[in-house]
């Protein structure tokens, strides 16, 4: 079995949507029935990998949403995003080591977690 790329999976889902639309359009013109198209579509969807989540390469940077938001890289590591480095990279920090890194935007997928800095006062 092949190991489809992220882009191939997305294109397969887009192609399925296009074929389903064409089939529905054709069937509605001759019979008004859509059950067969829906059943066949679901059979194909069951075999396809799910559509991958968008990467930071596909998302426009927004400080309010992405500053200190967590992202996962392609190796499964988790990072806090600090800011856009350039049009292809994001400045990040690794939470456990606080090591700064520049990571390609296409390698980062937001997890939905966000963090906030808070001030802590010592009472010593």
Parts with pLDDT < 50 across at least 5 consecutive residues: none
Number of domains: 2
Strand content: 15-25%
Say what the CATH topology of the largest domain is.
Answer: SH3 type barrels
Task: State the oligomer.
Answer: single chain
Average pLDDT = 89
In angstroms, what is the radius of gyration? 21 Å
Topology record:
Blueprint: H1 6-30, H2 35-47, H3 63-66, E1 69-72, E2 78-86, E3 89-93, E4 100-104, E5 109-114
Antiparallel strand pairs: 1-2, 1-5, 2-3, 3-4
Helix pairs in contact: 1-2
Descriptive report:
The chain is α+β, with helices and mostly antiparallel strands and 124 residues long. It folds into two domains: 6-47; 63-114, SH3 type barrels. The protein contains three helices and five strands, in the order H-H-H-E-E-E-E-E. It has helices at residues 6-30, 35-47, 63-66, and strands at residues 69-72, 78-86, 89-93, 100-104, 109-114. Strands 4-3-2-1-5 form a five-stranded antiparallel β-sheet. A hairpin with a 5-residue loop joins strand 1 and strand 2 (78-86). Helix 1 runs antiparallel to helix 2 (35-47). The radius of gyration is 21 Å and the shape is elongated. 10% of the residues are buried. The mean pLDDT is 89.
Q: What structural keywords apply?
A:
single chain, 2 domains, 23% strand, alpha+beta, 124 residues, SH3 type barrels, elongated
Summarize the structure.
The protein has 124 residues and is an alpha+beta fold. 34% of the residues lie in helices and 23% in strands. Helix 1 runs antiparallel to helix 2 (35-47).
């Amino acid at each position: 079995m092949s190991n489809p790329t992220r882009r191939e999976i997305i294109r397969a889902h887009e192609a399925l949507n296009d074929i389903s639309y064409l089939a529905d359009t054709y069937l509605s013109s001759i019979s008004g029935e859509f059950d067969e198209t829906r059943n066949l579509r679901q059979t194909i969807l069951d075999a396809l990998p799910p559509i991958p989540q968008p990467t930071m390469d596909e998302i426009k940077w927004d400080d309010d949403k992405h500053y200190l938001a967590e992202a996962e890289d392609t190796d499964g590591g988790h990072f806090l995003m600090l800011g856009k480095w350039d049009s292809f990279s994001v400045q990040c920090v690794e939470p456990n080591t606080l090591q700064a890194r520049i990571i390609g935007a296409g390698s980062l997928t937001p997890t939905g977690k966000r963090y906030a800095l808070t001030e802590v006062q010592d009472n010593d």
